[in-house]
Task: structure prediction
Amino acid sequence: MGGLMGRAIQGVKDGALITAGKATTRLVTGFLPVPKDGIMGIAAQGVGALLVGFLGAKFLGQDAGRMLMGGGFAAPIESFAKSLPVIGDALADDEMGEYLMGEDVGEYLMGEDVGEDVGEDVGEYLMS
Result:
């Protein structure tokens, strides 16, 4: 597949495999009886990345295995990078995402107070 569309489709496939590799590596290392933090946690994630990449290559092909392993190694690299001063802030978990997924948001957006106050004021403003 050539051209821009082919590259976009391949990019989406690669991105999905990388994300799957990272998630699977974190899942696999969650089952290992080793510390989850520090150098041992990073080392465990590295071993998990090797395992995920090896199995991916065996069952899905070399290209998929390479992407899965790359995503797998993104897990320990990200864990290490979060401890660095500037980069760590950029990689920190976003609290806004957690807030947006909460139940209070729906109540806030659809609350009775909002609809009543805004509706009347906007109508008056538009009609003036």
Q: What stands out?
A: Residues 99 and 105 are 7 Å apart (CA to CA). The two ends are 57 Å apart (CA to CA). The helical segments are 3-31, 38-60, 62-81, 85-91, 95-100, 103-110, 112-127. The chain has two domains: 3-92, 94-128.
